[in-house]
Write a sequence for this structure.
């Protein structure tokens, strides 16, 4: 096995070699890091799987800051899927201030953003994909997409996903699964699949309407068998298991989701025993931690190409003989997996998480042209500068982020509510300190098909119970009971949380408007992007308005927004946002 | 008959069968204050005559970890049994341990059933354990339990 530079640094750190000069030699700048460093790969075997996940419709390059807080139950924290910042850097042996550190962590983000520039974009991604296709022979390469592809930007929203399907066809996606795709509604999903060159597969979506023709039947093909490099590759699709609870049910009425490990095992066995495939791949949107559980429950899977939780994982993990990879989010990376498989057996593999550094990987002109064409009809609206930001606006983190706080500020200002709820999605954008905020940025943060901000009444008692319920969806010690998002972001509220406590007993010192919550009092609550309004009473219909309009108008009124990164949540049982394994501190 | 038509008909059968055990439940409950105050522990005590049940790998309880809709949670119970005159599953009870009326259904079987398996859709008022309580022909009781989360949802 070739030892990469990153491996070498890791080994050096373990043996305390002290790497002479490592401390003073400054990491490579864009000029020093060559395209060769990004492309370099120890090619192996007879075929290559290229993988992307959760690009969230970012067909243009963007800034995307990884989390500075990623807390979970004590048994999970510091393990792949729950690593960030310094803990991440230590685990994977990153050089500080390197291109990898810039892509994979939040550390020194603003400085490195100026040094290394934007990330992703289909035109740059295509150049890399074509490089691998040329190196390996296009007939030996498959490009797989773990979903959350059609939603996340204004151009996706305004074209009901069509712009992104065109981007996928341009990139040459072969197979995909879904999650946010379903928020266009099932009829539109089926329309878009007709426009899509790739196959859409899912073994875990079953009709559950007893009066429909597809009752208890598969909605999509559960798997596909592709031949590359003389190998038969069985690919089973796994869409997001909790689509119908995480997003409004009406979009997928009549379809039932779930992990469905029993049927997954059945398809693995069918591919091996009846179709005699050489390699079994699960293309998944389960989330990195749930897929680790799937690997424990189901045997005979060679590779899981995971998605949903947005983890960049520079190294694969192996559980129960199954190798699991996940390729970050927002088009920042492409995973390259070279596999040697024949005679029904995988003999070896090589993996690299490739950063799509837009300043280093040249843009494919056809991609630039396509993006321009797709954005042209909306240029006037999207390019409008709404205001400036004093501090960096980012999404992610377990409890709080500046862009979410800005949205909560906008909602509270307009709705005159006591409390505002903004969902803990993991997609969005980053706007650097001092930069303009455009309408395109606002869509990148909240461009969804159910954008209404609802304002209604909730009793203090109910609010406290709901917060505990949401906390258990995020912090349950068993990944199978988690939904893979972060904690809802609250405006007008402060609280303390002991993550390791049992369900229902995590939250304390809950205040509303600076005063301890009154459990018997009725509060005015505004919320969007969830189902909270269903629990409320006396909906103030006349106030209901799309969150992106509320946010736009607020930024325009303010001209310069100044959101501090102070946060409104006190973490009781951890000392920092990125604890290392087996520890409550960093 | 097609599979889906069969299931449509089955759907209506299940709807009827869901009513019957509630009636028999009321019979048993006469001695108590009222059926809705019957806790799971109390019901377990009455059914097993205080013996309790043993958790067993012979009982497979299939339920979702997170319910898609708390009003219709699909649950399947299967018991490994030869189903002969001398050794068979007599009754499959399904409990929602925190519902006001905790017993969802009781299904009585004979060796003629050949297979001890039953599927139903149950209503769960909140996050709780679902329990399959099995009465064997030798008078012993087996069980399996799983926690099912009922959440308002909304992606974090």
């Amino acid at each position: 096995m070739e030892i990469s530079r990153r491996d070498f640094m890791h080994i050096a750190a373990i043996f305390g070699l002290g790497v002479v000069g490592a401390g003073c030699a400054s990491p490579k700048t864009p000029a020093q890091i060559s395209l060769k460093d990004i492309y370099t790969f120890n090619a192996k075997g007879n075929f290559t799987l290229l993988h992307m996940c959760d690009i969230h419709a970012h067909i243009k390059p963007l800034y995307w800051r990884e989390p500075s807080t990623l807390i979970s139950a004590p048994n999970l924290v510091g393990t792949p899927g729950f690593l960030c910042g310094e803990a991440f850097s230590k685990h994977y042996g990153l050089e500080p201030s390197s291109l990898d550190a810039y892509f994979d962590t939040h550390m020194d983000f603003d400085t490195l953003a100026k040094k290394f520039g934007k990330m992703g974009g289909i035109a740059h991604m295509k150049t890399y994909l074509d490089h691998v296709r040329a190196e390996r022979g296009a007939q030996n390469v498959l490009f797989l997409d773990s979903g959350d592809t059609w939603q996340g930007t204004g151009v996706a929203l305004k074209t009901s996903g069509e712009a992104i399907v065109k981007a996928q066809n341009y990139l040459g996606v072969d197979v995909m699964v879904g999650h946010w795709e379903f928020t266009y509604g099932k009829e539109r999903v089926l329309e878009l699949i007709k426009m899509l060159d790739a196959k859409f597969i899912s073994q875990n979506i079953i009709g559950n309407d007893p009066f429909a023709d597809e009752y208890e039947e598969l909605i999509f093909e559960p798997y596909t068998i592709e031949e590359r490099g003389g190998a038969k590759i069985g690919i089973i699709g796994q869409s997001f298991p909790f689509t119908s609870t995480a997003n409004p049910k009406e979009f997928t009425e009549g379809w039932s989701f779930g992990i469905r490990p029993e049927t997954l095992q059945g398809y693995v066995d069918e591919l091996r025993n009846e179709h005699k495939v050489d390699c079994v791949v699960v293309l998944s949107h389960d989330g990195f931690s749930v897929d680790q559980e799937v690997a424990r429950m189901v045997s005979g899977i060679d590779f899981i190409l995971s998605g949903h939780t947005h983890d960049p994982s520079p190294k694969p993990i192996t559980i129960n003989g199954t190798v699991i990879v996940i390729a970050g989010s927002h088009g920042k990376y492409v995973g390259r997996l070279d596999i040697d498989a024949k005679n029904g057996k995988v003999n070896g593999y090589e993996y690299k998480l490739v950063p799509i550094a837009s300043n280093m990987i040249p843009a494919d002109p056809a991609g630039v042209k396509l993006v321009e064409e797709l954005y042209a009809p909306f240029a006037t609206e999207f390019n409008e500068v709404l205001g400036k930001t004093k501090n960096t606006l980012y999404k992610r983190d377990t409890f709080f982020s500046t862009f979410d706080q800005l949205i909560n500020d906008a909602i509270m200002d307009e709705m005159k509510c006591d409390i505002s709820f903004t969902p803990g999605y993991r997609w969005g954008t980053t706007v650097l300190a001092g930069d303009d905020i455009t309408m395109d940025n606002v869509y990148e943060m909240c461009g969804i098909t159910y954008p209404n901000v609802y304002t209604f009444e909730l009793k203090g008692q109910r609010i406290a119970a709901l917060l505990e319920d949401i906390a258990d969806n995020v912090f349950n010690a068993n990944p199978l009971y988690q939904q893979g998002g972060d904690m809802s972001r609250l405006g007008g509220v402060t609280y303390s949380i002991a993550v390791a406590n049992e369900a229902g007993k995590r939250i304390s010192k809950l205040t509303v408007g600076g005063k301890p919550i009154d459990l018997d009092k009725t509060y005015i609550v505004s919320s969007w992007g969830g189902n909270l309004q269903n629990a409320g009473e006396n909906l103030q219909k006349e106030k209901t308005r799309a969150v992106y309009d509320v946010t736009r108008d607020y930024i325009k009124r303010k001209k310069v927004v100044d959101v501090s990164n102070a946060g409104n949540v006190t973490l009781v049982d951890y000392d920092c946002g990125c604890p290392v394994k087996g520890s409550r501190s960093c | 008959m097609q599979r889906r038509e069969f299931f449509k008909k089955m759907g209506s059968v299940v709807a009827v069968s869901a009513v019957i055990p509630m009636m028999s439940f009321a019979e048993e409950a006469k001695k108590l204050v009222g059926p809705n105050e019957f806790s799971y522990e109390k019901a377990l005590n009455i059914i097993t005559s205080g013996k309790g049940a043993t958790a067993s790998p012979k009982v497979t309880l299939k339920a979702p970890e997170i319910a898609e809709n708390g009003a219709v949670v699909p649950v399947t119970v299967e018991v490994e049994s030869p189903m002969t005159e001398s050794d068979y599953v007599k009754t499959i009870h399904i409990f929602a341990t925190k519902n006001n009326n905790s017993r969802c259904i009781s299904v009585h079987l004979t060796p003629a059933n050949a297979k001890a398996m039953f599927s139903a859709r149950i209503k769960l008022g909140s996050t709780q354990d679902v329990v399959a309580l099995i009465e064997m022909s030798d008078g012993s009781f087996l069980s399996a339990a799983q926690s099912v989360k009922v959440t308002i949802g909304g992606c974090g």
Notes: The mean pLDDT of chain B is 81.
